[in-house]
């Protein structure tokens, strides 16, 4: 296969089966049988997507044309197109799309952000999906509290997240547990920067390790 992207990585999965390892990295694990069955078709496409942002315009057009005209129509076609389009919206969604220099810079930025916002670090968070919580926060902030949002947000009243952030913001201990439900979305949003920075830092760290670029001091 064309090893432009796979050559970045030093882990054993890339050394033993670079095309399938690249597919896994890009979230295409459910299509591995289809990809492994046509390596001559998918290897240049996956490599092209992995380095898409760094290609000249003519090469980008070739990658898009191959996805559109050569890949059999189905869910994989849409997924490949999404991986390309998303990079133009926000390249940092995909650590594998960053150059070594961009990745190192992003890791340092995320680590610094996490450190600066550590004072807002949540202690414990109820077990809800990010999507459900985000929806509850958004609709409560926009339209006021509703039954469904209340069901999601209620457990946060007594969570370590709300109590700790409230204390850091200067609430008196005696009223921490009595914080109104309408205040909880704001507290969650305040803590969000730290949550995201920590997650992004860890994602970047894993990618750096896979490429053999992680310094001992960053372990």
Please characterize this protein's 3D structure.
It is a single chain. By secondary structure, the protein is an all-alpha fold. The chain has two domains: 12-89, no CATH class; 100-211, no CATH class. It is 63% helix and 0% strand. The chain has twelve helices and no strands. It has helices at residues 12-16, 18-25, 32-37, 39-50, 57-69, 75-89, 100-116, 130-143, 147-153, 160-168, 173-176, 184-210. Helix 10 (160-168) packs across helix 12 (184-210). The chain is globular. The mean pLDDT is 74.
What features would you highlight for this structure?
219 residues; mainly alpha; 12 helices; 63% helix; 0% strand
Concise account of the structure shown:
This protein is mainly alpha-helical and 219 residues long. It has helices spanning 12-16, 18-25, 32-37, 39-50, 57-69, 75-89, 100-116, 130-143, 147-153, 160-168, 173-176, 184-210. It has 2 domains: 12-89, no CATH class; 100-211, no CATH class.
What are the SSEs and their pairings?
Elements: H1 12-16, H2 18-25, H3 32-37, H4 39-50, H5 57-69, H6 75-89, H7 100-116, H8 130-143, H9 147-153, H10 160-168, H11 173-176, H12 184-210
Helix pairs in contact: 4-5, 7-12, 8-9, 8-12, 10-12
Transmembrane segments: 175-197
Keywords: Membrane, Transmembrane, Transmembrane helix
